[in-house]
Amino acid sequence: MATENRSADGIVELDVRPQLRAGEEPFSIIMETFDRLQPGETFVLHAIMKPAPLIPLLEGKGYRAACEQLADDHWKVTFVPKNQ
Questions:
Q1: In 3-state terms, what secondary structure has residue 51?
Q2: DSSP 3-state helix, strand, coil percentages of the chain (rounded to 5)?
Q3: Contacts of 42 by beta carbon, 8 Å cutoff, 6+ apart
Q4: How far are the Cα atoms of 38, 54, 67 from residue 47, in angstroms, in the given order?
Q5: Residues 26, 67, 55, 45: is their CA dihedral positive or negative?
């Protein structure tokens, strides 16, 4: 199950590594979480690989992406509104 955490400082984190490891497609969970963002909130996604197709999609929605590979199977992608 995906884990979503919302902090008081405007950061929403979503970990979809369990779904990906189970062979499930988490795109709908990712987009549902993204669509619930409040103006100015940052979206942090944890995945087992770099979500290359997702990056230009969310950049087209007004966010910029920063990717970090934390382990062989752990990527952290931070999407920040371009106006910040």
A1: coil
A2: 25, 40, 40
A3: 10, 11, 12, 78, 79, 80, 81, 84
A4: 22, 11, 11
A5: positive
Q: What is the pLDDT of residues 7-61, one digit of tens each?
A: 778 999 999 999 999 999 999 999 999 999 999 999 999 999 999 999 999 999 9
Model confidence pTM above 0.90: yes
Distance, CA of 47 to CA of 8 (rounded, Å)? 23
Residue 2, φ and ψ in degrees, nearest 5: -65, 145
How many residues comprise the chain? 84
